[in-house]
Structures are given as structure tokens and as C-alpha cells.
Amino acid sequence: MSDATYGFDTLQIHAGAKPDPTTGARNTPIYQTTAYVFRDADHAAALFNLQEVGFIYSRLTNPTVAVLQDRVAALECGAGAVACSSGHAAQIMALFPLMAPGKNVVVSTRLYGGTVTQMTQTIQRFGWSAKFVDMDDLDAIEAAVDDDTRAIFCESIANPGGYITDIRAVADVADKVGLPLIVDNTTATPYLCRPIEHGATLVVHSLTKYLTGNGTVTGGVVVDSGKFDWAASGKFPSLSEPEPAYHGLTFSETFGPLAFTFHGIAIGLRDLGMTLNPQAAHYTLMGIETLSLRMERHVQNARKIATWLEQDARVDYVTYAGLESSKYFGRIATVCPRGAGALFTFAVKGGYEACVKLIEELKLFSHVANLGDTRSLIIHPASTTHRQLEENKQRAAGADPEVVRVSIGIEDADDLIADLDQALAKATA
Ligand SMILES: *Cc1c(COP(=O)(O)O)cnc(C)c1O
């Protein structure tokens, strides 16, 4: 099947899947197995040498997970994808083949709080470091790049403010300096934005959010565009030089546009072990089948609720990029023409105290540290997801102490507005 000829709604249901060859099962079975029987000793040897592609052991590959990988790769217009155990695992899996002790990554100041912590503190244990820059300042990105920089990293629609990154402009800087651009597309999903079409090299996702869609799974995925020349600069020896663990095989020569994907499985999953389990892959496949329908409703509800909040006297400001008042409104047409997502913050008059009261008074909105659920969710980022950051970094990330972050669900928008109305009344009384 030539997936390229099908539309998004078709691909989200069919890409990567076919009836089970043994039983005819129409839905993708959950292959709940750790290992796979080899045909004979030669078959086993060929698989272990990467001379033949197949299933050995579920830390590396599993048929249910493989369908998910193919499906997400198709939706993102990538050459291949590797699923893993969480969004944070996906970020490490994306950086791992590129980095080495002493190397750095240039990252956006506007990121999910957990990513800021991962990039500020934890990656130092590997001898890696991150340099934070405002991705709207293209000169600053270029100035931050040095001989040891190995990648540029940003979010398409940035958590928590819902700010839109001009991916094409950042990709042009990455091209100019010869580095891969990694885009975290979690909050947009491939339905709203496809970073590879704007020049991104790699796309990472937390499957935990909209792709599964109902808060039942923790998972992640790395998608490779297949377009980056890993051998050109000599900066990516893991991909372009002989690999001792596979008898001197060179990933970029042997696998071409699938080099990054094969490395992710054969080295990344094999040795880091951040594997997605087949049950989680199954839930995520079920979620993806309705991705476009859910995202349309998420966006429609978010637009209605943000518009209502913006005109309300008890609210200071709303950051939703789908509002004409947003400085990012002009980027929707090029970056995410189907809408600016459903994640944004708003400032309650009365500051921190009023935010806390609002959250306590809401009945339909759940107070949780998650986003991209069918249910509407709310959190106060400065005291939770972005708590580890100093106040100036919180503000740079869009997690100002006086704002709450909402992830608008797919319930009736009028019910959500009524809930916000009653809670705002109590919070600002
Ligand atoms: C949640 C999230 C992550 C981390 O994903 P987990 O699945 O929780 O590890 C990364 N980036 C963004 C934008 C997120 O929202």
C-alpha cells in the first residue's frame, strides 16, 4: 500500500496495519510475547547481525509496537519511527545517537517544565549540556551554536502557554549551521502540525497525551525524517562510522534514510531499554484512529473558551495563540492551519491565591499533571510542572506565578464555560 496517496483520516486508521496473517484478525493483535522462535540457526545469526529484519526479543521489537511505529511515521511524513516508554525517554532516545560527553544542544526557553529540568540537570550526568535561547530570536540561536553543538530542540506549540514556534525559520538556521532540528510535537499532534514538512529532522512525542488521547498510557516516540546527511560533517560518528557491536557495520551506509531508526532500535532500545510495551501500543493505536476527530473538537472548544475568558473582567489575559490578540496568531496559517491546539494559560485577577481557589472550586475540570485528555484538565504550573525553575525561568517558559494552564477537553464547551464561570466567581469574590 502506498501510504503517500492516502489522506490523514485514512492513514490514522490503516497505516502500518493489515489483517493478521495467521488468524485474519482485523484489528492489530496485542502480541504479548517476550521472544520469537527462530526458523533455524542461520536465521538467528542473520537477525543478530542486522542482515535480516525481524523479531528477536521485545526489548528491541514487537509486532504491535511496530504497527504503531509505522503509523506515527506515516502521519508525521517520516521515514521511520521508534516507540519508547515515555515522552521523556523519546527525548533521550533522540539525543543519544547525536551526543557525547562535552557536547551540547541548543534548546528553547519555552518548553514543558519536565524537559527544562531534564535538559538543565539530568543530562549533565552524561556529560551533555543545554543552552537555552528564545527561539523567536534567530540570531541568538545561531550565536549559541558552537563546535560542540549537536542539535537544536524546540516544541511546535509550546507547553504551557500554547506559543507557536516558527519551525521553518528555526530549521533554516539549523540547515545553515549543519545541525539536526528536533521538534517536540506533543501538544500539536501531526493532525495540526507536521514539523518535517517545515524542515525538522526529528520529531518526538509524548504518546501519553493526545495520541492516546484519554490519559491511559505513558509512552513516547521518535520519528526520523530520513533527510539528514549524518556523514557530511563528521560530527555524528555513532551513525556514520563503523559500529563495533555489529562487526563494523556503518548505520548511515547500510540503512540510508532509516539509519537513525535502526540505530534507535539496535543500539538505543537494546542498551538503554526504554521500551514501550505492546499493551500500551494497542491503547495508543486505538486512540490514534480518532485523532483528527478529537483534535477538531479540542480546537473548537479551546477557541470558544479562550474567547469567553478573554472578554471576562475577572481574567487579566489569555495566552491562546488562536486569539487575534496573541502575538503568535499570525503563525497559525503557516505552522498549524487547522488550529492552535487546546492548551493555553490564563491569568486570574487576584494572582496566585485566586488561581489556587479557582482550581479548588472547579467541578468538571480535573486538577492533574497531564494534558491532551478527552477530559478538561487544569493545573497551576508555577507550583507544579515548572516548580523546579527559578521565577525568571518560569516567566521565560510561560509559567508565570499568576497563571493557570488548561488543557481543554472534548466535553460540551458550554458546560466547561459554566464551570469556569462559577469557579471564577468564587475565586475572585
Ligand atoms: C508530557 C510531555 C513530555 C513528557 O512526556 P512523558 O510521556 O510524560 O514522559 C514532553 N514534552 C511535552 C510537550 C509534554 O507535554
TrEMBL record:
Entry keywords, A to Z: Pyridoxal phosphate, Transferase
UniProt source species: Pseudoroseicyclus tamaricis
Similarity field: Belongs to the trans-sulfuration enzymes family.
Listed GO CC annotations: cytoplasm
Cofactor(s) needed for function: pyridoxal 5'-phosphate
Database matches in InterPro entries: Cys/Met-Metab_PyrdxlP-dep_enz, OAc-hSer/O-AcSer_sulfhydrylase, PyrdxlP-dep_Trfase, PyrdxlP-dep_Trfase_major, PyrdxlP-dep_Trfase_small
Any GO MF annotation of the entry: cysteine synthase activity
Annotated GO biological process: cysteine biosynthetic process from serine; L-homocysteine biosynthetic process; transsulfuration
Keyword DNA repair: no
Domain of life, source organism: Bacteria
Protein name: Bifunctional O-acetylhomoserine aminocarboxypropyltransferase/cysteine synthase
EC number: 2.5.1.49
Record's signal peptide: none
Modified residue annotations for N6-(pyridoxal phosphate)lysine: 209
Entry annotated with the keyword tRNA processing: no
A UniProt-annotated Pfam family: Cys_Met_Meta_PP
